[in-house]
User: Which sequence fits this backbone?
């Protein structure tokens, strides 16, 4: 910044709620408690949550992240990630008598149970979600019977099923609420007999963070979302900001801020995905001070006081 110029002031409006949700807090807490109780290494199948900084911090403390269970030594404590796993993974761990702690988010486990209930009723299942996402793979692997993956309204309009009158749907928990409503509407138009939970299986934290971005977009020139590129809910927040006509950027941390983004910008909206720690948000605020004076304002938002019970294996640590 040219010292002869008066530095501009940027008003940074912080979304509320933002950052960690109860399911993420629980999953991280499980790994930390397992490290304390059983000592390192603790093996974790897939990233415990989709945030690079969280994963690197836990790795430095003795967590070992693996893609498959055959990478886990005999008898080693193993944690299933917050996204959930297929039943064949649960069975593979049981076959090897691996001691397992299940960190599956209770809201994801609820979707699994819903899908199994529909399947037990003889219904084909439509899963609204993103192909390749860990939660989607785990959910499909939890359900006996036919599961059709639908990602868009176009997919719904082109879907072919065996029994149109025996059809149900469930949803990935971290989707865009607005997009999912459109897909559900398309499914109902095509298959009037389809049954399902509207959008209530999109988790409360996802919905609250998306509503906050809607509010931010009315107030700011630009939106920053703190979160990792492989975080589904973080990507949705950025996409919503862009759809509402605001330049929106998904960044891991302050190191990814670019000066040209802020030319002519006086009001910045700042939020974080459900797997991004607050320390990264505060780091971004400090990073913004490179481009001018920063004034902080808190957006009014939905308070969150949800707490999920810990598994028995680590509850007493």
Assistant:
């Amino acid at each position: 910044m040219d010292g002869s110029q008066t530095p501009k002031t940027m008003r940074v409006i912080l979304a509320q709620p933002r950052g960690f949700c109860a399911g993420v807090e629980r999953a991280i807490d499980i790994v930390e408690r397992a490290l304390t109780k059983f000592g390192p290494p603790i093996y974790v199948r897939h990233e415990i949550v989709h945030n690079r900084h969280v994963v690197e911090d836990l790795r430095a403390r003795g967590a070992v992240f693996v893609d498959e269970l055959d990478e886990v030594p005999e008898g080693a404590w193993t944690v299933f990630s917050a996204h959930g796993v297929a039943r064949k993974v649960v069975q593979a761990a049981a076959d090897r008598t691996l001691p397992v702690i299940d960190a599956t988010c209770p809201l994801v486990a609820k979707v699994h149970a819903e899908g199994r209930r529909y399947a037990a009723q003889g219904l084909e299942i439509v899963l609204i979600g993103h192909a390749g996402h860990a939660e989607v793979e785990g959910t499909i692997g939890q359900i006996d019977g036919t599961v059709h993956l639908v990602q868009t309204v176009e997919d719904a309009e082109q879907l072919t099923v065996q029994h149109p009158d025996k059809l149900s749907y469930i949803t990935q928990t971290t989707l865009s609420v607005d997009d999912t409503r459109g897909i559900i509407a398309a499914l109902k138009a095509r298959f009037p007999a389809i049954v399902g939970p509207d959008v209530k299986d999109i988790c409360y934290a996802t919905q609250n963070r998306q509503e906050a971005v809607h509010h931010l977009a009315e107030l700011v020139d630009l939106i920053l979302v703190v979160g990792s590129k492989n975080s589904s809910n973080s990507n949705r927040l950025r996409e919503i900001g862009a759809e509402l006509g605001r330049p929106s950027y998904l960044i891991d941390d302050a190191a990814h801020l670019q000066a040209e983004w802020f030319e002519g910008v006086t009001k910045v909206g700042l939020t974080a995905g459900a797997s991004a720690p607050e320390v990264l948000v505060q780091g971004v605020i400090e990073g913004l001070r490179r481009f001018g004076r920063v004034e902080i304002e808190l957006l009014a938002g939905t308070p969150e006081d949800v707490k999920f019970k810990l598994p028995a294996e680590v509850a007493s640590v």
In short: Residues 22-38 form the longest helix (17 residues). The chain has three domains: 9-20+204-298, 22-104, 107-190. The longest strand covers residues 9-14.
